Amino acid sequence: MTMSDVNVLIVFYSRNGNTAQLAEAIAEGAREEGAHVILRRARDIVAEEIIASVPGWKENRERMEARYAAPTPEDAANADAIIFGTPTRFGNISAELKAYVDSLGGLWARGALNGKAGSVFVSTSSTHGGNESTLLSMYHFLAHLGMVIVPTGYTDPALFAAGTPYGASSVSGAGGDQAPTPEDLSVARHQGRLVTRVARALKQGMRANG
Question: Is the pTM of this model over 0.85?
Answer without folding.
Answer: yes
